[in-house]
Amino acid sequence: MGRVVLVTGVSRYLGGRFAHLLTQDPSVTRVIGVDVVPPNQDIGAAEFVRADIRNPVIAKVIDQAQVDTVVHMNVIATPTGAGGRISMKEINVIGTMQLLAACQKSPGIRRLVVKSTAGIYGSSPRDPVMFTEDNGAKVLPKSGWAKDCVEVEGYVRGFSRRRPDVEVATLRLANFIGPGVRTALTDYFSLPLIPTVLGFDARLQFVHEDDGLEALHLATVTPVTGTINVAGDGILLLSQATRLVGRPSVAVPERLSGIVGQAVRRAGLADFSAEQVRFLRFGRVMDTTRMRTVLGFEPRYTTREAFVDFVRGRRLHGPLSADVVGRAEQSLLAVLTRLQGSGAGAR
Prior knowledge:
By secondary structure, this protein is an alpha/beta fold. The chain has helices at 13-23, 58-64, 79-82, 85-105, 144-162, 184-189, 209-221, 238-245, 254-266, 274-282, 289-293, 303-313, 322-346, and strands at 3-8, 28-35, 47-50, 69-72, 111-117, 167-173, 175-177, 194-197, 203-204, 206-208, 226-230, 236-237, 249-252. The strands form four sheets. Strands 3-2-1-4-5-6-11 form a seven-stranded parallel sheet, sandwiched between helices. Helix 1 crosses helix 7 (209-221), helix 2 runs parallel beside helix 4 (85-105) and helix 4 (85-105) packs parallel to helix 5 (144-162). The longest helix is centred in the C-terminal third of the chain and has 25 residues, at 322-346.
């Protein structure tokens, strides 16, 4: 008999696509997708069950369906998608606690896969060239999704100690990008005017949405355990990425970067936290040796190729010509002057 897999967060883009992907695997007999609202996309032959993982009722769903594998995709990255930061925190942290409590009580659970993030490594000027799975953050995330994921991974490690009979795999995925997925970073690169931090050129690493989902698929149907970094090969500098999207950028002094980030968030243009602003200053790169040697996964897209597919899928302009760059620089000089003036007045 094949696996019976429960997938959380199927009403979201990645969760729904992942549930659909699992239904095409002959080794999986049944896929049950849970969320608080029905998915608005095709989840294939997966069965949808309306359930809130913050509620102990999730334990009944697991037991009644005789679930043996749980894939936790419902760690939300943006407050707006969850109805605010408080609701986001409850879903991410309290929801994970209830889900793990249900898994702990269920004797039929044999495997747990958790979608985590490279964001738990933080971003700081003291970061190593590449983070391995054994590295800790030099500066722990203090807010947002990354902080929630630090807590989530802590609860997962506790669950693993209490249920050593359950195979547990945690995938720390680089920032998802592609033609369909929407994140704070895809919104950022779609801005008509892209703010950067003066004097910084962050190293960026991405995973294409197709590659990220395939890595999660492999982690679900193979006996791999432990923590694994997942990302496309290579890096992009922030300056290279802004040129690829063909949008003008403005270099904002570091002391004003937080103000600009707040302004962008309040305007509803992109959902940016203080941690994301730090990421755009210092960047982050992971070592993916275990992805290949342990998970046995080889991404189809490099970091650059994944970003180019995002540009193509969103129909962004692509590289700017030299004359357009010149005109943009002239107009941005005036914008920068106004920003500096407002910052000086605020001090």
